[in-house]
Write a structure and sequence with these properties.
It is built from 17 helices and 9 strands. By secondary structure, it is of the alpha/beta class. A 5-stranded parallel sheet has the order 2-3-6-1-7. Strands 4-5 form a two-stranded antiparallel sheet. Bound molecules: adenosine-5'-triphosphate and magnesium ion. The site of magnesium ion has 3 residues, from α3.
């Protein structure tokens, strides 16, 4: 198993492509630019590149947006004794610490313009100058940069130097958002849970039913893998050692809501329904409909609503869904809508809804 396979979980086509790119580029000293939304794994990619490169030195990370700009220069390039008030000793910067290894510049888009010039010089000459020092210090570094910003737009606004961009964008790696590779979610859930248990042996990770996975795979994940990890951590606390069902994902984990003990009991009954003899002949539970009262505040947010059109839209969606469920059987669809068969046919004509063909 390669480093990138171990670190970067996922069998989706875009993830395989990312690993292929890493394996191609890692052994060289080519500068790599990792791009992708927040939480997609840019830092993981930097680590995978470093491990796979088998460079003897360390992986040294600098988050350009987390260090105040007036400190960033000396952090990166180091300083000579007496270079500024407080510089009591000569200190090596992160470039020198990364000698023989990899320097990871995270959030490169936030690097202040004057420093961009200095970075460009370091990249071209492979030497650096400490703050307050006049000599060029040669450094053998491999540069990996990352950003979640659109650097091209920053260039147009004069916030990022175009010449530096061409220097760092030698080998771009674009990480796909989690929603674009939802097929990876089951593998990621397993890997992230294993990791959590390793870190904290007391954790009782839950298991996830098929419907739970379906919910996880439907969610848009704006915070990507980091958000998934947070949801799993929450699941460990709310459902320790238990099987989590689909509705609980939607109701308790994606929206933060502590499970209600009564609902909880219902969920348990549902989960164990096929094990226990049927004692209760319960009415089927009501489906979670959007409540009519939700429209009460409509005019606090909007000036108007095309009510007739809106209600028709709802009708169309429900009729089509019912027809799909009944495989096009009109009377069954009418039953599930609690309509008379003839009423349904009239509505289908009015809205020009066709029966689905299998
Ligand atoms: N493909 C993956 N396989 C396993 N773990 C992953 C993967 N992608 C991301 N992670 C995990 O998700 C979390 C977020 O990843 P990371 O910090 O690398 O994201 P990022 O892209 O750097 O985010 P940001 O832009 O917010 O800095 C980490 O805990 C990381 O271990
Ligand atoms: Mg990061």
């Amino acid at each position: 198993m390669t480093y990138s396979e171990r670190l970067l979980i996922g069998q989706s086509a875009p993830m395989k492509e990312v690993r292929r790119l890493i394996e191609l580029a890692a052994p060289s000293t080519t500068t790599i630019l990792v791009q992708g939304e927040t939480g997609v794994g840019k830092e993981v990619v930097a680590r995978a590149i470093h491990e796979q490169s088998e460079r003897k030195g360390k992986l040294v990370s600098v988050n350009c947006s987390a260090i105040p700009s007036e400190l960033l220069e000396s952090e990166l390039f180091g300083h000579e004794k007496g270079a500024f008030t407080g510089a009591e000793k000569t200190r090596a910067g992160r470039f020198e610490m990364a000698n023989g290894g990899t320097l990871f510049l995270d959030e490169i888009g936030d690097m202040p313009l004057p420093l961009q010039a200095k970075l460009l010089r370091a990249l071209e000459s492979r030497t650096i100058q400490r703050v307050g020092g006049g000599t060029d210090v040669p450094v053998d570094f491999r540069l990996v940069c990352a950003t979640h910003q659109n650097i091209e737009a920053d260039i147009e606004q004069g916030k990022f130097r175009a010449d530096l961009f061409y220097r760092i964008n030698v080998f771009p790696v674009q990480l796909p958002a989690l929603a674009q590779r939802a097929v990876d979610i089951p593998l990621l859930v397993k890997a992230l849970c294993d990791r959590m248990v390793k870190e904290n042996k007391q954790l009782a990770v839950p298991t996830f039913s098929e419907s739970a996975f379906a919910e996880l795979m439907r969610y848009p994940w704006p915070g990507n893998v980091r958000e998934l990890r947070n949801v799993l951590e929450r699941a460990c606390l709310l459902f320790p050692g238990r099987q989590v069902e689909g509705p609980e994902i939607a109701n308790n984990l994606l929206k933060i809501k502590v499970p209600d003990p009564v609902e909880e009991q219902d969920a348990l009954w549902e989960a164990t329904a096929d094990m226990a003899p049927i004692i209760f002949d319960n009415e089927p539970t009501e489906a979670p409909l959007p409540h009519p009262s939700h429209y009460q505040d409509w005019f606090s947010f909007f000036d108007n609503i095309d009510m007739r059109r809106h209600l028709q839209d709802v009708e169309v969606v429900l009729i089509e869904a019912a027809l799909r469920k009944s495989d096009g059987m009109i009377s069954a669809a009418a039953d599930s809508l609690k309509l008379r068969r003839t009423t349904l046919i009239e509505k289908m004509k009015k809205f020009m809804i066709e029966k689905p063909v299998n």
